[in-house]
Amino acid sequence: MGAGGELDAFDAGRCADGYALGLAVGRRFAEVIRSRMRQDLVLREQLLPFASTAEAQPLLAALQSANRERYPRYWDELVGTADGSGVPLLHVILVNFRKEVLPFIPKEEEGGDRAREEEEAEADGDCSDVLIVSDSTAIAAHNEDGNVALLGHTYLVRATLPDGASFTAYTYAGELPSCAFGFNTNGVAFTLDSVPPVNDEIVAGAIARNFVSRDLLEAKNLEDAMRRVCSPTVSVGHSYNLMDVRGRRIVNVETASGNRFAVREAGAVPFFHANMYRHLQVKQVQDENSMSREKRAAQCSVDSKETALSLLGDTADEKYPIYMTGPTLYTLCTVLVDVDEATMTIYKGNPKNGDAAHVLRML
Question: Where would one find coiled-coil regions in this protein (predicted)?
Answer without folding.
Answer: none
